Amino acid sequence: MLDFTFFAGLVLYFLSMVGMFVAMVFHQKKLNTIAWYIFLAAAALETVYLIMRGVKAGRLPLSNQFEFAASFSWGIAVILIFMHYKLKIEWIDSLGAAMAFLILSYAALQPREITELMPALRSAWFGFHIGSAAFSYASFLLAGAAGIRYILTYRKNPQDESLEKMDYMIYRLIAVGLLLLTITILSGAIWAEEAWSSFWTWDPKEVWALITWILYAIYLHLRLTRRKTGTFLAWYAIISIPVVLFTFIGVNTIMPGLHSYGSLWTDTLL
User: Where are the domains of the chain?
Assistant: First the structure.
């Protein structure tokens, strides 16, 4: 039942992504609406899956690479739905759906066995630290998606009135992501002191989390102090995506450290 729910959600994400892109190319508003509802169904299935997995495991589903990737994808969906209904922003839907699908596809490549929580992970900081990281990464990826849409719109019509709103949304997403990443780093430092008797160990994951934090702090500095906007910062948000993905995937793959326990594929803490 768990696997069926997971892969059903993955298929629906794929269908919604394809539907949104086809609707965008051929200007089919009705198809876009249908694709959006398919996306909602996919997000609902992913929510059910994470709840079922958490109940079965007896803990939050955040303890390994698969679970974090699934939660990362879910975070993208949650933020996208909030933007769609609360902020009335629909221009990012297709790219957001694509990112949710791609991250969940990566999760599908990881072992899905439910493992017992490692002793070092049994802490009150567990959900707080890793959950904030998932939503931080989701915000950064959506900022990159907004940057892509900005560039495409600018090339089509540099005078488009929606460009200013897109630029502001990139800023808001990065500001939220940076706040959440700050929470991730600070809570991780407190947790590290409890687990390893040291707030900072220069572990590869810690270092790359700090690099990511500095990267986006520079963005805010450029926008707020240097008053930079427009295509430069849109490209900045896009080019920053590989750094986020390397912090998420690359570090765990080629730079194991204190944040890796046992097998890289089964017990990787993010």
Answer: 2-254
